[in-house]
Design a protein that fits this description.
The complex is a heterodimer. By secondary structure, chain A is an alpha+beta fold. Helices cover 65% and strands 15% of the residues of chain A. Chain A has one domain (3-104): Winged helix-like DNA-binding domain superfamily/Winged helix DNA-binding domain (Arc Repressor Mutant, subunit A, Orthogonal Bundle), CATH 1.10.10.10. Chain A has four helices and three strands. Chain A has a three-stranded antiparallel beta sheet. Chain B has two domains: 3-57, no CATH class; 99-112 and 133-270, P-loop containing nucleotide triphosphate hydrolases (Rossmann fold). In chain B, 39% of the residues lie in helices and 20% in strands. Chain B is built from nine helices and eight strands. In chain B, the strands form two sheets. In chain B, strands 5-6-7-3-8 form a five-stranded parallel beta sheet, with helices on both faces. Chain B has a three-stranded antiparallel beta sheet with strand order 2-1-4, covered by helices on one side. The chains are: A alpha+beta, B alpha/beta. The A-B interface holds A 26-28, 31, 43-45, 48-50, 52-53, 56, 64, 71-74 and B 23-24, 26-28, 30-31, 33-35, 41-44, 48-49, 52-53, 55-57, 59-60.
Chain lengths: 107, 271
């Protein structure tokens, strides 16, 4: 497994929460948001298990709805707990990245 | 593999794991439609994808579980069994209701099979008594099949003991075998030429012949591959859902969440 994939594995759930922070969405569109955000192509086999875990933990809520004349889709959105988890993880992550960056800089 | 084939295989794998497939299959189908990419590339093999979804769901409410309800079908009261000076069972109680699955666990030598044999009436307890309401099906740990009979002949023989006609017993046995991933055209092979796993499947089918109200199963899945093992639990749940009382002796501690109740025979001093 390459390094980027390993990094992503640790933060995919937070990236999914972040993608939903931009508005409720369904699976395929979430994958597109992540790709547009520079995270590369996220396979459905990785994305949907992560969504189910977030749903089970109460960080996202989902319901089935028909879009504009289209087929019914499962729409996900952040719950208040999910929004709070995203805020606190985002602050932790910024500190973590700063520390890693500082550590990797050779004086 | 076409999209429809993949989705059908995915649905079957979810059903095998007792997860209602409709919503998950619809979501996967929608994603495939939107992305226009082949399912193996998007989700990987259906089995692996189903496993990872079920892992993510564990503890969630989509598991089709229901509380047991119904009258006691099996009541074993204060069972004591001694062999020489050692006491194998020391006042064990076991009650199983209609529509309930009880797992019996415990270390080797803790008396699991002995208890089951006592419940089946094959062995007398030194103290205590067993009350059974209805008829009984028993699947021993090994043995239970006759080397020189074919599966069809087993169905007819056991069916006759339970008052079934030849044709009815054969049809019932074949139908039950088909739900256990039974190898094709094994009906006419004598039992000694069947694999160990297939013999155990035959054993399990025989236990269920004639629609008994109580089923006693003694680690009946030895030699099953993983798929068949899941089919075994499907069969157990079907029995439960039709109101049977089921006892499963098992050593697979990881599978206890599949039963409604657990009886641990490991002696208190050994714990």
């Amino acid at each position: 497994m390459d390094r980027r994939t390993q990094w992503l594995r640790g933060v995919l759930d937070l990236c999914v929460l972040g993608a939903l922070g931009r508005g409720e969405s369904y699976g395929y569109e979430i994958a597109q948001r992540l790709e547009a955000g520079g995270l590369g192509s996220i396979a459905g086999g990785t994305l949907y298990p992560a969504l189910l875990r977030l749903e089970r933990l109460g960080l996202v809520v989902a319901d089935w709805r028909a879009g504009d004349g289209g087929p019914a889709r499962k729409y996900y959105r952040l719950s208040p707990d999910g929004a709070a988890a995203l805020r606190s993880a985002s602050a932790d992550w910024a500190v973590f990245v700063d520390n890693v960056t500082a550590m990797m800089e050779v004086p | 593999m076409t999209v429809d084939d993949w989705l059908a295989a995915f649905a079957a794998e979810l059903r095998r794991r007792r997860v209602e497939p409709a919503a998950l299959v619809a979501e996967a189908a929608g994603h495939l439609r939107d992305s226009g990419r082949p399912p193996l590339q998007v989700f990987g093999p259906p089995t692996a994808y189903a496993v990872s979804l079920v892992d993510s769901l564990r503890g969630a409410t989509t598991e089709l579980r229901r509380p047991p309800s119904g009258e006691p079908r099996l009541a074993a009261v204060k069972i004591v069994k001694r062999y020489g000076r050692s006491t194998i069972l020391d006042g064990v109680d076991l009650t199983v209701h209609a529509g309930e699955v009880v797992a019996v666990i415990g270390a080797n030598g803790s008396g699991k099979s002995t208890l089951l044999r006592i419940c089946a009436g094959l062995l007398a307890p030194d103290e205590g008594h067993v009350r059974i309401r209805g008829t009984l099906g028993y699947c021993p740990q090994d043995g239970g099949t006759a080397d020189y009979l074919t599966p069809d002949e087993h169905y007819v023989l056991i069916g006759a003991g339970r008052g079934e006609s030849r044709g009815a017993a054969r049809a019932e046995g074949r139908a039950a075998a088909a739900t256990l991933d039974w190898p094709r055209s094994s009906e006419t092979v004598t039992a000694r030429h069947l694999s160990g796993g297939t013999r155990q499947k035959l054993n399990l089918v025989l236990a269920g012949l004639g629609d008994p109200g109580v089923l006693l199963l003694d680690e009946p899945y030895q030699g099953f591959d993983n798929g068949s093992y899941l089919d075994f639990w499907q069969q157990v749940w079907r029995w439960r859902d039709t109101g049977k009382a089921v006892v499963v002796v098992t050593h697979r501690l990881g599978e206890l969440d599949r039963a409604d109740a657990v009886l641990d025979l490991t002696s208190r001093s050994a714990r």
